[in-house]
Amino acid sequence: MTLFNVLDILGIIAFAISGSLVAMRKKMDPFGVFIIAFATAVGGGTLRDVLIGAHPVFWMKNPAVIYYILGSFIFATIFRKKLKYINKSLFLFDSIGLGIFTIMGTEIGLNANFHPIIIISIATMTGSFGGVIRDILCNEIPIIFRKEIYATACVLGSAIFLALHNFEINSGIIYVTTSILIIAIRLIALKFKLSLPTFYAKE
Fold first, then answer.
1. Alpha helix ranges (H) inside the chain
2. Average model confidence (pLDDT) for the chain?
3. Which residue from 67, 117, 144, 186 puts its CA 20 to 30 A from 195's CA?
């Protein structure tokens, strides 16, 4: 198993736990929690595969993905009371999934020989749209549309990935470095309360 595969699995697990935590916070039943976990884990990657014409989409070619999601759902359900600071747990798992999936999307875009702007767009979509689908299904305004540093972290991480790739640095180093960078950007933004400006119109 390659580092790429390991990171992909970790991303699926992180986002599945993230989705489970949001669904449990909304007091959904077990079936609802699993559906939200599933949609969060595969949503961004599914949309990416549909847009680039990769059929069938990634989780249909690899049924093990469903088992990873199921295991994550069970883990989150069993240890829900242990996750004392559920909002902090949600933020952490969401950030991990965001960082890893952004890098997965960047690598897939590179392998398809897309233009750098398209690669960054695909990477951002892969990293963030699982969370968008999760929030919509849970009747919340998606994080990506609020003032949090979210999609911006994806764009920066993907751009740095492409820059490092041009220097022919070892792919494993690039994967780990840029994933950690995206997670760090999210954590720093939270700690120092950094955010993008919001726009509104007076009535």
1. 3-25, 30-52, 58-61, 64-78, 86-111, 116-137, 151-166, 171-191
2. 91
3. 117
Quick one: which of 40, 42, 45, 47 has its CA closest to 19? 40
Which residues does 142 contact at the CB level (< 8 Å), separation at least 6? 131, 132, 135, 136
Q: Which residues of the chain have pLDDT under 50?
A: none
**Residue whose structure tokens are 């699995």:** 9
The conformation of residue 142, written as its DSSP 8-state character, comes to: -
Tally of CB atoms within 10 A around 16? 30
In this structure, the number of other CB atoms found within 10 A of the CB of residue 38 comes to: 24
CA 12/CA 37 separation, integer angstroms: 9
> In angstroms, what CA-CA distances link 153 with 122, 156, 158, 170?
14, 5, 8, 22
Nearest Cα to Cα of residue 34 among 46, 23, 47: 23
Domain map (residue ranges) of the chain: 3-191
